[in-house]
Structures are given as C-alpha cells and as structure tokens.
Amino acid sequence: MSKNKCICCDEISQNYVRLHKTRRQTHALCIDCAIGYIKPRLDIIKHKLCTKNKFTIDDTIMCPGTYHGNVKNQCKHKINIRNIFVDNSTELYIDLFRIIYVLDNPTVRICPNKDCGNVVEALDNCVECTNCNFKWCKWCYCIPYHDDMNCIEYEYKTSSSDNDKHILELYKQDKLKFCPKCNSSTTKDQDKDGNDLGCNKISCIYCDINWCWLCGKGNIDYDHFNSTGIGSCANKLWLGTKDV
Prior knowledge:
The protein is an alpha+beta fold. Among the domains are: about 1-105, no CATH class; about 180-244, no CATH class. Helices cover about 20% and strands about 15% of the residues. The protein has four helices and twelve strands, in the order ββαββαββββααββββ. It has helices at about 30-50, 90-105, 150-160, 160-170; strands spanning about 15-20, 25-30, 60, 80, 110, 120, 125-130, 135, 175-180, 185, 200-205, 210. Strands 1-2 form a two-stranded antiparallel sheet. Strands 3-4 form a two-stranded antiparallel ribbon. A two-stranded antiparallel sheet has the order 5-6. Strand 9 (about 175-180) and strand 10 (about 185) form a beta hairpin. Helix 1 packs parallel to helix 2 (about 90-105) and helix 3 runs antiparallel to helix 4. The relative contact order is 0.08.
C-alpha cells in the first residue's frame, strides 16, 4: 500500500481520519470507512457509559490496517481513541468528543435515552437531562431515579437473589461502603473469625482514589491518620481491625 493511500485504498485527501503513524506510513481511513469501522466501537463504549461499567471501559480500538497490504503483516497497534484525528466538522468528531469528555470527567454522564445522548453535569444523585428530561441515578443508572432509597436498597427491592440480600446485610452492618469518587461498593478482607484485615486507608481498584474507611473522605494519604491531624480519624489507621 502506498503511504499516500488510506487503509481502504482511497487516496488520502483533506477529508480523512488519521488513526496512527508507523515508521513507514500513516494509517488512515476515508470518512465513510471510518464511520463504518469506528462508530460501532464508539457505540459500545457509549452504551457502557450509560451503565455501572464506566470505570472498566477499554478506550482503545485495534487498527484495521496492514503493512503494505500484506495480510500476514496485519497491524497490531492499539489506538487510544484520544489520539484519533478527525475533522471537527464531521458527526464522528462530535461523537468522539462527547465520549472522551465523559471518560475524562467523573461528574459528567451521557443521557441513557437512546434517542438523546446529551452530555449532562451530574451534580446530584438524581440526574435530569436538560434536553429530554430523563431522570436516572448518577451511580447505578436506574431509570427512573429510586427516590427515598439508596442503590443497594433499590437493588434488593427489585431483585430476589441471595447475593443481593447478603450485600444489603453487609451494608446494614456497616461492613460495606462506597467509594466517594466512583461509588463502587467496597468491603474489607476478613479472617475466618470475621475480623477486618488491613488498615482504614482504602485504594479503589476502579478509579484509583485513596479514601478513608471511617469518615469516607477522598483524596487522602497517611497524614489523614497522623496524631497531629485535626480530623476525627487521627490515630485511627487500624481502628476496628484485628491488627489493633
């Protein structure tokens, strides 16, 4: 394939989507082929952004190109969607911009109404779309919002599984808490006698924030538990655990 051609073999013009550069050539697609290849993958990401899976989304796509048209030399490059160059006058650019903006901003959500897709600032637990007036939960994406109940209580009410009942019991016993950034449910490891293990500085496996098990404050370090600390958690790094 000539380095002056797109992957789809059209001549590279001003109206194309650049995926990435190799040492020898630029891998690009014409607009029509880019929409056909990239948009379905963006739709999958957008769907996950409207569920509880926001912090486990893969924001890369595989390059569909080959080196010089040789199938055995298929390009294996993974492209971060933030690095795709798209002309800002296209619908694909708008779709890509919205998704990247929501991925990079934890307080922003995409409206789950399939006929809308508006980007909304989620300041309250109950989010209302300014475009279509859809209302949903900021954390579990329940539609409509579950008034007077938290997410765990709502899931228990609408499900009859033993797992949900167990989770609710942990929540009532204060053995299950929520990350202050991404609201993922969190429990501590326990020994065979039911004693908590590990300290009260929690690192979220989904969004990487460090937070306090005792007071729920986010963006902390070990200074939060120092004896000179001014908060209520001073000298309580191991409070409530077997290691005290």
